[in-house]
Amino acid sequence: MMRLAICDDYQRVALSSADWSAVAKRCDIQVFDRKLEVPDEAAEALADFDILCLMRERMPLPRALLERLPRLKMIGVTGAHNRTLDLACAAERGIVVSYTPDSRYGTFATAELTWGLLLAAARHIPEEHTRMRQGGWQNTVGTILRGKTLGLLGLGRIGREVAGYGRAFGMKVQAWSQNMTPAAAEEAGVSYVDKAELFRTSDVVSIHLVLSERTRGLVGAEEFATMKPSAILVNTARGPIVHTPSLIAALTEGRIGAAAIDVYHVEPLPADHSLRGVPNLVMTPHLGYMTREVMRHFFEETVANVTAFLDGRPIRLLPVSFTSS
Hints:
Elements: E1 2-6, H1 21-24, E2 27-31, H2 40-46, E3 51-54, H3 63-66, E4 74-77, H4 87-92, E5 96-99, H5 104-123, H6 125-133, E6 149-153, H7 157-168, E7 172-176, H8 182-187, E8 191-192, H9 195-201, E9 204-207, H10 221-226, E10 232-235, H11 244-252, E11 258-261, E12 281-283, H12 292-310
Parallel strand pairs: 1-2, 1-3, 3-4, 4-5, 6-7, 6-9, 7-8, 9-10, 10-11, 11-12
Helix pairs in contact: 5-7
């Protein structure tokens, strides 16, 4: 019987989100609900497994780890891309890598969380909630979004969804990205501006870009210096798009009004990380796609991928071109 590991199931929902019974008849299934440090801890824990099922990009699989997993025959990844998996190495070793199709629920889930974070920052909801729990009463003054300007970095599926929320709240919506054209912005019902104008004139800047070498550190000290003192930054895309020391300085020194973030350079975020003590910062632990609907989609499709592999007819093979950056 093959051994199958479900990795990084922090919420312990993998087995309840899909019917694994057919797989369980053919595989010994073990769930890891904590982060395994790469490569040493992960290599030791996973050395005897034939199949690994990964949750998005939570645990990287570089060559240094793959070469220490002698029994590994199949990797199942959730989502249609994975930039932390060395696909070239997997191909060299004959390891099948299957992906799950993107779910439309993922777009809605992240866009809705984006708006929730924005409202939480604008109205100081976490701070006032904590104060109420401690027996206190109101201490902050919030801001209204209607009539304000929402600036979007990126106008893909999630960015367009957030743009619709902005219009529903009576906001002026503008956008920029490296590849955006005025025509594309107009088609999405938003105004096109250049990067400098977006940061200078937006009351809210929300990030919806893919992490790449072009976007890594895209938001840093220069951008924070041009933002309004009352502006709010929201990041539900990827942590490294924002230069963390510059964000900490901007918030600590009051150069921007607030920030709300769901993504980080290192995840899970270390308990002693300096971000945890920064003022005017709303933080969530990468909850963007963590909804019942998305988890059900991910794991039902993962079961289908594993079953196809066990039957000798693997499906949805991830192209080698999607290597880690």
